[in-house]
What does this fold into?
Amino acid sequence: MGRGYDGSLTVTLSLPPQYAESVHALMQDDISVEIKKWRDKRSLSQNALLWAVCEELAQSLKITKVEVYRKAIKDVGVYQPLPIRDDAVDAFCANWETGGIGWFAEKTDKSKTPGYTLVFAFFGSSTYDTKEFSRLVDWLIDEAEQIGVVLKAGPELEQRLKELGR
It folds into this structure.
């Protein structure tokens, strides 16, 4: 990284050689590059932990693990409030929910803009970074503890509980 005479930043991008042809093809048009703080992706074992806790809560509450998961997404997950034209709300919600199990939309209220409804569009956990995903798992573990569900200890759960100081 360097600075130009006008104070602007110059960033150099280094890629492995196998991407040369693809990058060269992209350079024929305008491109967009995003720079953001690095976050590790979650592991498959963290994902397995989430579904194991959902399953145990579901058995105790006599509901499905999908219902548990969606409640967790709704209570502590990531969502985007969107004003949607009244006549397009149902179609938007139906389309949004094709994203996966955790992708759902809820009509909340009339928007401040006449003719629009405010919709909360919830993202499934597949899009979460490690911080967001940890918050989701922690909420599920808290829920289990609050209702007295004793979670079956596996290595990932033991590690997570240790991190939470439990």
User: Anything to note?
Assistant: The first strand starts at residue 2 and ends at 3.
